[in-house]
Write a structure and sequence with these properties.
The structure is a homodimer of 292-residue chains. The first copy, chain A, is an all-alpha fold. Chain A has one domain: Farnesyl Diphosphate Synthase. Helices cover 71% and strands 1% of the residues of chain A. The first copy, chain A, is built from 15 helices and 2 strands. The longest helix of chain A is centred in the C-terminal third of the chain and has 28 residues. The model of chain A has no long low-confidence stretch (mean pLDDT 94). The interface between A and B is large, with 52 and 52 residues.
Chain lengths: 292, 292
């Protein structure tokens, strides 16, 4: 894959790679549980986190083959979190990626177990990759997924429904809920190649932090402006549930402006890398301009 | 700790060690989610899986300090599975270890997240241990926890309610549901010390398989013969739910006989190890003679 192919070609090729890799990874999961796992993971999704891993891998000169396991592992964590998030005890959603949610299709108990098994599989893929530093990678992923990361952010989110948050509180919540796993995707991708200097790792963290927040701001915008048909999930859900969002806090115009500022911050963070960061640069553009 | 101390002293010392280690591991988990995690893990439980890890470690001459992380990780996986198992969508239990279950105390959404975060923490502890072979250990734990192990067994269990299973089906279900994690506890403990010969690893697998099934048969017996006061959980639940058990299939007398046979098989498997397997030998005795 030449580095001068357009973004659309690069990203489509990587998405196909992820899709095939995830399909292989889940092919042997047995029974009805295996079906529910494949149903929840395959055939949909923007694969933002795997794309971030591959794009960060390019910064460190990593062969895509070495990014496959980290890319699959972050997507499996993301997919499990969606399955659990959609459960009646959480967001009680019935539509995801244009299909009935896992518990609608398989029942609540199987959906609960499918999420659990997907999380285990995520660590299994990463730990079993045979790559150097696999244990450290697993520890990093665990930190991003657990109470100090994604799960902790979801807990704060639950407690925030119906309340008005300050921008700083909303930002902290999203830094944990979606930002931690996005940062892990970037870090794991970057660790798949040549060792980076500490200043470069910091630059990538800054990028991930801005890109992750931009992703969330755009998510909030799309929830207001999008339709279920384009989103593949229920639109207008945040407001109906009394969830604090960047739009409810800032208004539409200022939220759009905030997304643009975060994109610029993400671009700035990439300056030290020059053209090696091309895909990360394009990726945050795509995150901000997407319509689903 | 001298090798000639009585079982009661050895096991109590190890249980305290696990308790302190788990408390340290979970001390910094933030917020209400952290509370729910500590509530679900600390101050109760027989710690059978950690004891198996330490006992297997002795077979390989492992210093207990090297078994701490594996021991904590299997207990965290076990604890998360109990939290999710107790949810209304699964077994809908209100009493566990003599206390209200996690979702009764914290609500369903927090209990769901607490289970999720405990699973992540389990892999974090093991991956972050700095021990050689940590990645392989994580891969082993992931296999035992996921769709081919514990979660898969729980799915089969769900599908079996109200049906009559053959003894072989019931055995397969339990080999996955509880046996896989018990086997992982033994394997992870044994890997913490000197490398074992393949024949020794096979012998430990045979031991774990027999001890794991014995544990389940006794669980089924206690559900019929025990009281909530001694069990710390609802008694008579299996029959009320139409769950197939070793007692429902074999009757009380034959189930007791089956447990004794499995104990003898476990003992036989330990023959090659001599006195180094003393704690594993005592452990299966304890598993079979316990009253909770």
């Amino acid at each position: 894959m030449h580095s001068d192919v357009p973004w659309e070609v690069w990203s489509r090729e990587r998405q196909q790679r992820v899709e095939e890799n995830l399909a292989r990874t889940l092919a042997d999961e047995p029974g009805r549980l295996g079906e529910a796992m494949r149903y929840s993971v395959l055939g949909g999704g923007k694969r933002v986190r795997p794309l971030l891993a591959y794009a960060a891998g390019e910064v460190a000169g990593a062969d895509p083959a070495r990014v496959d396991a980290p890319a699959a592992s972050v997507e499996l964590i993301h997919a499990y979190s969606l399955v659990h998030d959609d459960l009646p005890a959480m967001d009680d959603d019935t539509l995801r990626r244009g299909k009935p949610t896992c518990h609608v299709a398989f029942g609540e108990a199987v959906a609960l177990l499918a999420g659990d098994a997907l999380q285990a599989r995520a660590f299994g893929v990463l730990a079993g990759s045979g790559l150097p530093g696999a244990a450290e990678a697993c520890a990093l992923l665990a930190g991003a997924a657990g109470a100090t990361g994604m799960a902790g952010g979801q807990d704060i989110d639950l407690g925030a429904t119906g309340r008005t948050l300050a921008l700083s509180e909303l930002t902290t919540m999203h830094r944990m809920k979606t930002g931690a796993l996005i940062a892990a995707a970037v870090q794991l991708g970057a660790r798949s190649g040549r060792p980076l200097a500490a200043s470069q790792t910091t630059a990538l963290d800054l990028y991930a932090s801005a890109a992750g927040l931009a992703f969330q701001v755009v998510d909030d915008l799309l929830d207001v402006e999008g339709s279920a048909a384009s989103l593949g999930k229920t639109a207008g859900k945040d407001e109906a549930c009394g969830k604090p969002t960047f739009v409810s806090l800032l208004g539409l115009d200022e939220a759009r402006c905030h997304a643009a500022t975060l994109r610029a911050q993400a671009h700035d963070a990439l300056a030290p890398f020059g053209n090696r960061a091309r895909r990360l640069h394009e990726l945050v553009d795509w995150i901000v301009s997407r319509d689903r």
